């Protein structure tokens, strides 16, 4: 979304990032997470291991960085012509992507390498940016959307919490119920 | 809480668990997470490394197991005589414990060693058990509490999500606002 890249696109730094991220994604497929090492990634990316260590610190940070990049949305949320329909479509897609085994692994990796919380905050900002677009669109249609932080608390939070901590019975119907509770309240009566 | 222990208290297995968990907690304080190794833990706990590997698989699983144990509540939630007051007191305490740097590290560790999601589910069950006690108490007072899963979605989820992904501006006032939104809805208007 609108978030600034930390790396200038097209520069050497961006090329290194692209090569190293690509190597990690390929090797995760080929050898799996447990067997992955920094020298292996460096060899595949055709950089020196010290380039990787200098830039990412260690494998955990690198995996976290790759994960956050994978969690970045490719497109703006679909416009279905109304706030409720837009939120439902977004929530269902968000749930589908993140509740898959790779989606869940990326979420955990994003938290992992992340002692200062910066990568986790980037993930949350991606979701907030998408939801903001939906809420702005609703305002432009003269609908009265809830504030962003209410949507983060009552729609995004329960989806992510359940994906990570409480996956049983989490489905598209639950995502739609959360949208209804956000827009119609009161909750759970 | 009501949760069954996987290990019979007082048996050899329980003694090993206690010694190994204690060793991990001490060594986390003394040498930090990065320097911790299984042989170091085994030596401190006076067991063989193979005992640790056999039971926990690897260091990540062991750290995850220790984290979940640390997240287990010691006491039933305080009874303040009413649903709203009970939920507010519980939410404020939950937030205070988990948003500290060690609390956040334990939450992340619980997710970490956890490919099948079992440890994360245990964490969520601890919170659900505490909230269930509060809701049952409210029913016994002839109050009309929301269903457990609504409280998980709209009170527990946003607290945990914000602790992990969006810590800015998260404070006791936010916890109380979540309680109000759960009990009074509609949200965020």
TrEMBL record, chains A, B:
InterPro entries in the record: Homeodomain-like_sf, HTH-type_TetR-like_transc_reg, HTH_TetR, Tet_transcr_reg_TetR-rel_C_sf, TetR_C
GO molecular function, one term: DNA-binding transcription factor activity
DNA-binding region: 37-56
Claim: DNA-binding is one of the keywords in the record: yes
Keywords, in A-Z order: DNA-binding, Transcription, Transcription regulation
Domain HTH tetR-type: 14-74
Name of the protein: Regulatory protein TetR
């Amino acid at each position: 979304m609108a978030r600034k890249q930390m790396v200038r696109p097209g520069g050497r730094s961006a090329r290194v990032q692209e090569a190293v991220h690509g190597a990690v994604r390929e090797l995760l497929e080929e050898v799996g997470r447990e067997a992955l090492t920094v020298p292996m990634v460096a060899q595949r990316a055709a950089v020196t291991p010290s380039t990787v260590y200098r830039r990412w610190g260690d494998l955990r940070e690198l995996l976290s960085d790759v994960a956050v990049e994978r969690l970045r949305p490719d497109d703006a949320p679909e416009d279905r012509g109304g706030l409720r329909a837009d939120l439902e479509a977004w929530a269902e897609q968000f749930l589908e992507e993140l509740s898959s085994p790779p989606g869940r692994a990326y979420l955990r990796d994003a938290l992992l390498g992340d002692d200062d919380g910066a990568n986790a905050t980037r993930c949350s900002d991606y979701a907030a940016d998408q939801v903001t677009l939906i809420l702005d669109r609703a305002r432009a249609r003269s609908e009265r959307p809830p504030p962003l932080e209410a949507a983060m608390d009552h729609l995004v939070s329960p989806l992510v919490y359940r994906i990570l901590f409480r996956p049983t019975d989490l489905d598209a119907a639950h995502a739609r119920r959360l949208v209804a509770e956000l827009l119609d309240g009161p909750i759970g009566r």
